[in-house]
Amino acid sequence: MSVILSASVIRVRDGLPLSASTDYEQSTGMQECRKYFKMLSRKLAQLPDRCTLKTGHYNINFISSLGVSYMMLCTENYPNVLAFSFLDELQKEFITTYNMMKTNTAVRPYCFIEFDNFIQRTKQRYNNPRSLSTKINLSDMQMEIKLRPPYQISMYELGSANGVTSAFSVDCKGAGKISSAHQRLEPATLSGIVGFILSLLCGALNLIRGFHAIESLLQCYLLVYYTGWRNVKSFLTFGLICLCNMYLYELRNLWQLFFHVTVGAFVTLQIWLRQAQGKAPDYDV
Prior knowledge:
Elements (H helix, E strand, L loop, with lengths): L3 E8 L5 E4 L7 H16 L6 E6 L2 E8 L2 E8 L4 H18 L2 H6 L10 H11 L2 H4 L6 H9 L3 E3 L1 H4 L8 H12 L11 H19 L5 H11 L5 H18 L6 H20 L12
Helix pairs in contact: 2-4, 9-10, 9-12, 10-11, 10-12, 11-12
Family: Belongs to the synaptobrevin family.
Subcellular location: Endoplasmic reticulum membrane
Function: May be involved in vesicle transport between the ER and the Golgi complex.
């Protein structure tokens, strides 16, 4: 029998589960697939936006868009076109219901658990082909899958369920050790973007008056890119800003000095808050 068994909505950057359907079947195969769900959720940022993992009698399919991944487990004989049409419906409804700000700032696992109601209703529809035939048009999805088939994830890439690390993940970790330039920072917040603009403004004001602007540009660089000793460099840069403004005390009024030092302190705080993405927490997905 070909059916959809479960589905989850997961944040791509850290694997945080946002919502999920209730798994009623607790067979050995299902428990094994839950391990694969966990492993995939930690690697979503490294994988293409449409993938399939075949795990014996079950398939795991997922699509990713706008920092959120929609993952489902189905039997091996469930049609691909229906699987990805199901995921496409989940994606459209989730984007319509929740804005990006909510998904980016979510802290608790399953904080959108009420979305499970829509997942269950849609799953029931897709498990009953008669109810689908008059409600959806599969021709577009068939053409899309034909032109851009899902990437087939191999067990060699994923690593085994008992914790053996694959060569794929070893290469990624090795690359991070060789060069810190490949380390990714957390997504920029609104306050971080404001700080970046204010720092550029301070640099431009310094250049217009014929002063230096290197410390403001250095703050912008540290805010955008990851480097070794990044926090130490940011505090040293702020110290340089304070020293430079003390040197220019007689050429600026108190409001100008206050503005430049305050912006420097604000950007330093944003650099400290925007840390590198670490290992994804082991959420129980």
